[in-house]
Amino acid sequence: MEINLQGKNILVTGASRGIGAAVAEQLGKSGARVAVHYGKNEAKAQEIAEKAGNASAAFQADLNNNASCSDLFKKVVQAFGKVDVLINNAGIAIQSPLEKNDQEWIEDWEKTMQVNMTATAVLSRAAIQHFQQNQGGRFIHISSRAAFRGDTADYMAYAASKAAMVAFSRSIARGYGKQGITSFVIAPGFTATDMAQDFIDEYGMDYALQGVALDRLTQPQDLAPTIVLLASGLADHATGCTIDINAGSYVH
Ligand SMILES: NC(=O)c1ccc[n+]([C@@H]2O[C@H](COP(=O)([O-])OP(=O)(O)OC[C@H]3O[C@@H](n4cnc5c(N)ncnc54)[C@H](OP(=O)(O)O)[C@@H]3O)[C@@H](O)[C@H]2O)c1
Fold this sequence. Notes:
Elements: E1 9-12, H1 18-29, E2 33-38, H2 42-52, E3 57-60, H3 66-80, E4 85-88, H4 102-133, E5 137-142, H5 146-149, H6 156-176, E6 181-188, H7 194-203, H8 205-210, H9 220-232, E7 242-245
Parallel strand pairs: 1-2, 1-4, 2-3, 4-5, 5-6, 6-7
Helix pairs in contact: 1-2, 1-9, 3-4, 4-6
NADP nicotinamide-adenine-dinucleotide phosphate (NAP) binds at residues 14, 16-20, 38-41, 62-64, 89-92, 115, 142, 144, 188, 190-191, 193-196.
């Protein structure tokens, strides 16, 4: 089966590095025009847009700021004409032990919720309204294994934000399916990126590998093919689902 995304415009948040970068590149190789969103790493985002090809382009927005999220969606629609798929990938994981003082712990919690969930909601709301005017569209939300099994106590906010994404995605699937809008969740386990490296530096590679069935860490490229399939429309009857890509964490 050949998957051809020609003619599809796809916005990927947090595509300057890690999972988002690998996904953007593979979407481009499959024919899509990709809006490569970034926060700080402009040069890397430009590089990914070039690799993706098909007149893909980089777009900056700080996801700590809700007005920037709305502007991002508008800017992509202005540049590309329309958006067919939104991939909510950008995310942060802040180590936040209970021993931090009240103010710091609450700030970590709120920042995590802002970037991982509120920014996702603001962007998705704009996308739903856009999709309603264009006979449909697709969402792919990059959640985490942590949504289902929790995380270490230092990452409670992260796990909670990722669980919220799952309920959010299912609500979109329920609420807008009859308008041609579908919504999926990918729940990765440890994946070799800067984010995972922070965790491995703290807990060690053995800790990361002891919970998986395979003998190696998942690479960002291991997630991309499933995301290309979901973006294509060939899997629309899986709307509302979560796909675990976690090297067999649940069977180990
Ligand atoms: N890696 C894992 O083990 C793992 C496991 C499960 C789920 N996930 C999820 O997968 C997604 C991607 O993770 P990753 O490991 O690829 O992360 P990463 O390597 O740390 O990259 C994060 C991306 O998000 C962007 N970003 C972060 N905060 C931002 C902000 N405030 N405003 C704008 N952009 C922002 C970064 O942009 P700039 O660099 O340009 O600022 C970067 O492109 C996340 O949602 C993460 O929770 C990851």
